[in-house]
């Protein structure tokens, strides 16, 4: 992968541009209950970034100018992602509570406390720990990018699709930074950096957003947006991408976690799960019919 141009990223970093969102159309079409739940979860995760920053900027990582410059812009962009999603809900007639941000951030989950403690400690003990941070970030940014694109594909609200496609572009930039940093640090750090990364990711990684906001929402998102053939193939491609990093050939955690999450959702809400599968089947049939029609036109 090409080296990330940090100077360019820092100089062009800005809040997501909402000037071309047609808020009247967004409100007129509205959002479904499941979209509202999805957007709220995504907004919560975005607004939680400031807390992740606290754990990322510690020890050797805090003294690394590339990392700190990126983080300063990254947290700004992510915060604006959260605000944009909140605004969308509000314009669509589903405003969030005034103290929503406080409620989401006031009590970190036990797992967040543990991973935060260990990651701050790891960053103080060895400079090699930064490679694990960067790899962790690359996985989560890639997942965020893919989730926004999946929402854009599924929603019937074109303004929501437009907004989340913009967010997906930012997530792709963030991914490029984390991935190129992880690649370099895992390669240069050799077995020490790679072993540490293995232990951190294998032992503690879970998708971004776990423990934030309403329970089981991530499971619903996986069932709703990644239950079909296309969704599953996309998730496999994410594992393949991360497995390209030095020492990460073993990585298959996204598919494993999402398969387990989908199964869990079937137990949590069997009715919604069955509805999602019926939607997938309908969409697949429509797609097949349009491919068939296209082939007929081409042959005449
Ligand atoms: Fe974001
Ligand atoms: Fe991001």
Q: Briefly, what is this?
A:
The protein is mainly alpha-helical. The chain has helices spanning about 5-10, 25-30, 35-45, 50-55, 60, 65-90, 100-105, 110-125, 130-155, 160-205, 215-225, 230-240, 255-270, 270-300. Helix 6 (about 65-90) crosses helix 10 (about 160-205), helix 9 (about 130-155) runs antiparallel to helix 10 (about 160-205) and helix 13 (about 255-270) packs across helix 14.
Describe what you observe in this structure.
With 300 residues, this protein is mainly α. The protein has a domain at 14-204: Ferritin (Up-down Bundle), CATH 1.20.1260. It is globular. The longest helix is centred in the middle third of the chain and has 47 residues, at 158-204. The mean pLDDT is 89. It has helices at residues 6-12, 23-29, 33-47, 49-56, 59-62, 65-91, 100-106, 110-125, 129-154, 158-204, 217-225, 229-242, 253-268, 270-299. The chain has 14 helices and no strands. α3 (33-47) crosses α11 (217-225), α4 packs parallel to α8 and α11 (217-225) packs across α13 (253-268). One fe (ii) ion binds next to α9 and α10.
Q: Got a strand count?
A: 0
Oligomerization status of the protein chains:
single chain
Q: Mean pLDDT score, rounded?
A: 89
Proportion of residues in helical segments: over 70%
Low-confidence stretches: none
- Which CATH class of the domain at 14-204? Mainly Alpha
- Quote the beta fraction: under 5%
Distinct ligand kinds: fe (ii) ion
Give the overall form.
Answer: globular
The assigned CATH architecture of the domain at 14-204 is: Up-down Bundle
What's the helix-strand series?
Answer: HHHHHHHHHHHHHH
Total of helices = 14
């Amino acid at each position: 992968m090409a080296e990330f141009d940090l100077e360019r990223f820092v100089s062009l970093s800005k809040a997501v541009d909402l000037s071309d969102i047609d808020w009247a159309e967004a409100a007129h079409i509205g959002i479904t209950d499941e979209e509202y739940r999805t957007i709220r979860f995504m907004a919560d995760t975005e607004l939680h970034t400031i807390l992740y920053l606290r754990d990322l900027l510690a020890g050797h990582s805090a003294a690394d100018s590339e990392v700190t410059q990126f983080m300063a812009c990254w947290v700004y962009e992510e915060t604006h992602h959260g605000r944009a999603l909140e605004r969308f809900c509000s314009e669509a007639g589903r405003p969030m509570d005034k103290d929503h941000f406080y409620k989401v951030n006031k009590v970190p989950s036990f797992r967040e406390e543990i991973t935060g403690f260990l990651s701050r400690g790891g960053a103080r003990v060895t400079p090699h720990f930064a490679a694990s941070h960067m790899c962790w970030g690359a996985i989560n940014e890639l997942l965020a990018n893919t989730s926004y694109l999946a929402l854009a594909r599924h929603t019937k609200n074109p303004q929501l699709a437009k907004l989340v496609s913009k967010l997906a572009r930012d997530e792709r930039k963030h991914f490029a930074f984390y991935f190129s940093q992880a690649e370099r640090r895992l390669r240069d750090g050799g077995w020490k950096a790679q072993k540490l990364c293995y232990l951190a990711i294998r032992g503690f990684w879970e998708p971004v957003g776990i423990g934030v906001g309403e329970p089981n929402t991530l499971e619903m998102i996986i069932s709703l947006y990644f239950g079909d053939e296309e969704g599953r193939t996309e998730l496999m491609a994410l594992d393949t991408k991360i497995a390209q990093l030095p020492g990460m050939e073993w990585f298959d955690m996204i598919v494993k976690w999402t398969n387990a999450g989908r199964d869990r959702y079937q137990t949590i809400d069997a009715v919604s799960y069955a509805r999602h599968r019926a939607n997938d089947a309908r969409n697949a049939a429509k797609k097949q019919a349009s491919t068939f029609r296209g082939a007929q036109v081409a042959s005449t």
